[in-house]
Design goal:
55% helix; binds magnesium ion; 607 residues; disordered C terminus; alpha/beta; binds adenosine-5'-diphosphate; 4-stranded antiparallel β-sheet; 6-stranded mixed β-sheet
C-alpha cells in the first residue's frame, strides 16, 4: 500500500462511517475539519513560507461575520434587489467575506511584510486583538452578544442544518483545499514559495519577487481562514466575537506547529489532536481535581511546551517515519517530456560585453572596500577575479549581481544601466550566479533545487498550479533540471536532499541551478572550494564547455592552478583596487601581483 492509497482508504472509510457516527462525534469531526482548514493555511504561511501569524482567528471572524451580516441584517436586505432568493444569501455572504478578507490581508501584508523580522507577527497580534473589539463594539454586528438566526446552508433545496449533513461539505472543502495546496507546493510556484525560507537574496537571484510572493501567501492563508469562518457561521447558526479572539489565533498556530508546520496533513493531525485533547481535559480535570475551573488551559500549555520541546518539527514527520516501514514509497511519475518549450535565450555573439563595471566604488563607513574598480565580462570567455582575503571580491560580486548598490560608479548588464534594480532583474537579463556560502534548500531534493533555477522560464501561476493545469510546463522544467544535473555530473544524487551532499558537491548543485536559468553570464563565487582534485578537473572541463557554448563566466577563486589553467583574463584586486589585469601569463609576471601574494600562493600553487 502506498501513502496515497492509504489516504484514499481513510477518506472512504470516514465517508462510509459518517452516517453511523453519533451526533456528538459528528459535531467534533466537523469542528476538526473547520480548524484544519485554518491550520492548513498556517502550514503554508509559517511552515513553508517562514512567516508567523497569530491573527488567523480574526480572518475566520471576518468570514463568519460577513455571512452573518448578509443573512440577518435588515440593512443588507435593503441593499440586495427585492425578491433576492434567500437560499443564495450565504453565497453572497461568502463572496463578501472573501472580498473583505482579501482587502484586509492585502493591506496588512503590504504594511508589515516589507519590513523584516518580527513586524509581521506583531502586526498580526495587533490585528487579532483589535478586530475582536471591533466585532464586539459594533452595534450592527450585535456587539458582544453577537448575531443569531443564521439560516443553514442549502444545496439544491436540501438543507444542511446539522453536522450530519454540513460535516461532509466541510470535509469536502477541506480535502479539496488540501489537494490544491499539495499541488501548489508540487509546482514551479511552490518551489518559489519554499525558496522564501532560503532567504531573500537567494530567492531574488532565482528571479522570484519575494515581497509579492509573501503577500500572496499571506492572502491565501487568510482566505482559507475566511472560508472556514463562513462554514463555521452556518454550522453554529450564531456568531459572537469570542471564537475569533487572539487566544484562538494562538491555538490555530499551535495546531499547525504541533501537527508539523511543514506538512499539510500535519494541519489535520494538529487540529484533531488539540480539539480532542481540550475536549478530554475539560471533562477529566475537574473530576480529577475535584474542583471546577479552567484547569485545562494550564495543562494544555504545559503539554504544548513538552511537545514543542521534544518534537520540534511536529508530530506528522514522526508518524510518517513510523509508517515508512510498511508503506511503499511514492514513485514519482515522470510525464512525457512535454510539448511545452521553456523560454529560450539567444546567447550574445562571442566577444560582446555582457557585464560592464565602470569606476565602481563601495564604502562601508570609513572603509573603502572597492575603489574605482573597472571590469568587463565578455561572451565566450572565462574571466577570473582574484586577490587576497579582504581584497573586496565579494563586495564587488554583490554589486554586479544586484545584491548591493555601488556608492559610486555604474554597473551595466547587457548594455542596460542597473542602478537601483533588484537582483531578480539581473536574473531576467541573463545573469546566473552561485553563492560563496552555499544557499540551497537543504531538505529538498537536488532536482527541486535545480528546478528552482528555471523559475523565470515558466509562466503558470498559482491557480493553474493548484488545479494541475501546469503539468506540461512542469515536466519541461523538471526535464531541463535533470539535463543540467546530468551535465554537471550529479545524476546519482538527483533525488537526495541537497544537504546530504558534500559541500563541494553542493557548490556544483548551485552551478546546475544557475544553468537551469539559461544564463548568458555566469558568476561563480569560489566554485572549486571543497572539491577534490578529480572533481576540480571535472568542474574545469564543464566551465570550458560552457565557455565554448558562448557563456561569459566570471569566477572568484582562490585555487591558483585552477584559475591559471582556465581563465582567459584575470583581474587582480588588492585593498579594493585593481592592481593588474591581463592574461594569466601577464598577471603572473606582474611584480605588483607577486608582491601582493608575497610570492606565496602564486608560486606555491603548483605553477
Ligand atoms: P573578499 O571577498 O575579497 O575576501 P570582501 O569583499 O568580503 O573581501 O571584504 C572587503 C572588505 O570590506 C573587508 O575589509 C570587509 O571586512 C569589508 N566588508 C565587507 N562587507 C562589509 C559590510 N557589509 N559592512 C562592513 N564592512 C564590510
Ligand atoms: Mg569573499
Amino acid at each position: 500500500m502506498s501513502a496515497r492509497q492509504l489516504t484514499l482508504a481513510c477518506i472512504a472509510a470516514l465517508a462510509l462511517a459518517w452516517g453511523f457516527l453519533p451526533e456528538f462525534t459528528l459535531t467534533v469531526m466537523s469542528y476538526i475539519g473547520l480548524y484544519a482548514l485554518v491550520a492548513a493555511g498556517l502550514v503554508m504561511l509559517t511552515g513553508v513560507g517562514g512567516m508567523t501569524s497569530f491573527g488567523q482567528a480574526a480572518f475566520v471572524g471576518l468570514g463568519a461575520y460577513a455571512t452573518a451580516w448578509v443573512c440577518t441584517s435588515p440593512l443588507a436586505a435593503a441593499w440586495l434587489p427585492a425578491g433576492f432568493p434567500p437560499a443564495l444569501l450565504p453565497l453572497v455572504g461568502l463572496a463578501l467575506g472573501l472580498l473583505a478578507t482579501y482587502a484586509v490581508a492585502r493591506f496588512l501584508g503590504a504594511v508589515t511584510l516589507r519590513l523584516s523580522g518580527h513586524y509581521l507577527p506583531l502586526g498580526t497580534i495587533a490585528w487579532g486583538l483589535s478586530l475582536y473589539y471591533v466585532f464586539g463594539n459594533l452595534d450592527v454586528l450585535g456587539g458582544f452578544t453577537g448575531m443569531s438566526g443564521l439560516p443553514p446552508l442549502t444545496v439544491a433545496g436540501f438543507s444542511l442544518a446539522s453536522p450530519l449533513y454540513l460535516g461532509p461539505l466541510i470535509w469536502a472543502v477541506l480535502l479539496f483545499c488540501l489537494w490544491a495546496l499539495h499541488n501548489l507546493l508540487d509546482s514551479r510556484e511552490g518551489r518559489a514559495i519554499r525558496a522564501l525560507k532560503g532567504g531573500r537574496v537567494m530567492a531574488e537571484s532565482m528571479g522570484v519577487d519575494t515581497a509579492h510572493y509573501r503577500i500572496k501567501l499571506f492572502v491565501l492563508a487568510a482566505l482559507l481562514a475566511a472560508i472556514s469562518g463562513w462554514l463555521y457561521a452556518h454550522l453554529q447558526r450564531f456568531v459572537n466575537p469570542t471564537p475569533f479572539n487572539i487566544n484562538i489565533g494562538i491555538e490555530y498556530l499551535f495546531m499547525a506547529v504541533v501537527g508539523g508546520a511543514g506538512h499539510l496533513w500535519g494541519a489535520v493531525l494538529g487540529a484533531a489532536l488539540i480539539t480532542l485533547l481540550k475536549e478530554q481535559l475539560q471533562d477529566w480535570l475537574p473530576k480529577l481535581l475535584g474542583a471546577s475551573g479552567n484547569f485545562e488551559v494550564i495543562v494544555f500549555g504545559l503539554l504544548m511546551l513538552f511537545v514543542l520541546q521534544r518534537f520540534a518539527d511536529g508530530l506528522w514527520p514522526r508518524l510518517q517515519a513510523a509508517s515508512g516501514r510498511w508503506l511503499k514509497p511514492e514513485v514519482r511519475r515522470v510525464g512525457a517530456a512535454a510539448a511545452v518549450t521553456l523560454q529560450q535565450r539567444v546567447l550574445p555573439p562571442a566577444g560582446q560585453v555582457l557585464l560592464d563595471a565602470r569606476q565602481v566604488s563601495r564604502r562601508f563607513g570609513g572603509l573603502l572596500a572597492n575603489n574605482n574598480v573597472n571590469m568587463s565580462l565578455k561572451a565566450h570567455e572565462v574571466h577570473a577575479l582574484i586577490g587576497p582575503n579582504g581584497a573586496g571580491k565579494s563586495t564587488f560580486f554583490n554589486m554586479i549581481s544586484g545584491v548591493d548598490e555601488p556608492t559610486s560608479g555604474e554597473v551595466r548588464l547587457m548594455e542596460q544601466p542597473m542602478q537601483g534594480r533588484p537582483s531578480r532583474e539581473f536574473a531576467a537579463l541573463g545573469l546566473g550566479r552561485t553563492f560563496q556560502h552555499v544557499r540551497l534548500l537543504g531538505q529538498r531534493s537536488v532536482l527541486e533545487n535545480v528546478a528552482l533555477g528555471a523559475h523565470r522560464r515558466g509562466r503558470k501561476g498559482w491557480i493553474a498550479s493548484m488545479l494541475r493545469l501546469d503539468r506540461a510546463e512542469e515536466a519541461a522544467i523538471l526535464a531541463e533540471a535533470r539535463r543540467q544535473i546530468e551535465r554537471c555530473g550529479l545524476a546519482e544524487y538527483i533525488d537526495r536532499p541537497a544537504a546530504s551532499l558534500a559541500l563541494g558537491q553542493q557548490r556544483v548543485v548551485e552551478i546546475a541551478r544557475a544553468l537551469a536559468g539559461q544564463p548568458a553570464a555566469l558568476l561563480l563565487d569560489e566554485p572549486a572550494a571543497g572539491l577534490r582534485h578529480l572533481e576540480k578537473q571535472a568542474l574545469a572541463s564543464l566551465l570550458d564547455q560552457l565557455r565554448s557554448e558562448g557563456l561569459g563566466i566570471l569566477v572568484v577563486e582562490h585555487d591558483m592552478e585552477f584559475v591559471m589553467n582556465l581563465a582567459d583574463r584575470i583581474t587582480v584586486l588588492e585593498f579594493g583596487e585593481v592592481i593588474a589585469e591581463g592574461t594569466p601569463a601577464e598577471v603572473q609576471a606582474n611584480p605588483r601581483v607577486l608582491e601582493a601574494y608575497l610570492g606565496g600562493e602564486l608560486n606555491g600553487g603548483g605553477l
